[in-house]
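To illustrate the input format used throughout this study, we show a single complete record. The first block contains the structure-token representation of the backbone; no residue identities are included at this stage. The design step must infer an amino acid for every position from geometry alone.
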């Protein structure tokens, strides 16, 4: 299958690094052009969410959908884009996969390179255990991740397991991120304004 090399601003919302990524053609995982990404970052009108008692984000990767629940009630569903290699759980830094598992929002960034962003607490305790078992990370890194998760703080973001996974704006038409979950700007604005740090996030295959 023929491949196309495209230039895209990376998923990391804090450092503004520019990446060159090769994407398979012939399916929805082709990266958008830089111009289309910038166009999709223009703010549109968003609608405030109702007051939520116990919010939960459920990302269904295969469906390319983000479902927002309040306890057992489905509040709203959003279209999403994923990492440029969307199938399977994230294993290592730079693999382009969106992680799977149970997480929480550990930060809200109003100055994201992708309009607004919510930090997802990857790597999890399970990810850390796998990383230690496979000798991807050290015992010290493993223990630091476990401690942060147990205290619902920010896990280490710079190990070989990868990190800096965000739910952010920039457009949901393609799987173009480095492993993040991307929405239209008006949609991330709703979530950003309606959710708090500590909100639980479940990412399913």
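Output of the design step:
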């Amino acid at each position: 299958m023929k491949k196309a090399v495209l230039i895209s601003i990376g998923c990391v919302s804090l450092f503004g690094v520019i990446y060159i990524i090769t994407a398979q053609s012939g399916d929805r995982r082709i990266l958008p052009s830089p111009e289309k990404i910038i166009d999709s970052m223009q703010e549109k009108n968003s609608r405030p969410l109702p007051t939520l008692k116990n919010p939960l984000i459920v990302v269904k990767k295969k469906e390319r959908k983000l479902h927002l629940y309040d306890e057992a009630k489905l509040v709203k569903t959003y279209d999403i884009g994923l990492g440029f290699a969307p199938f399977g759980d994230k294993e290592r830094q730079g693999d382009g996969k969106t992680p799977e598992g149970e997480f929480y929002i550990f930060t809200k960034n109003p100055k994201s390179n992708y309009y607004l962003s919510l930090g997802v607490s990857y790597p999890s305790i399970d990810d850390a255990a796998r990383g230690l078992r496979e000798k991807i990370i050290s015992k010290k890194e493993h223990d630091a991740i476990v401690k942060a998760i147990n205290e619902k703080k920010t896990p280490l973001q710079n190990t070989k397991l990868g990190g800096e996974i965000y739910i952010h704006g920039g457009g949901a038409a393609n799987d173009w991120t480095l492993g993040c979950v991307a929405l239209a700007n008006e949609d991330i604005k709703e979530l950003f304004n309606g959710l708090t740090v500590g909100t639980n996030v479940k990412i399913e295959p």
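Structural context for interpreting the output: The longest strand covers residues 101-109. The chain has four helices and ten strands.
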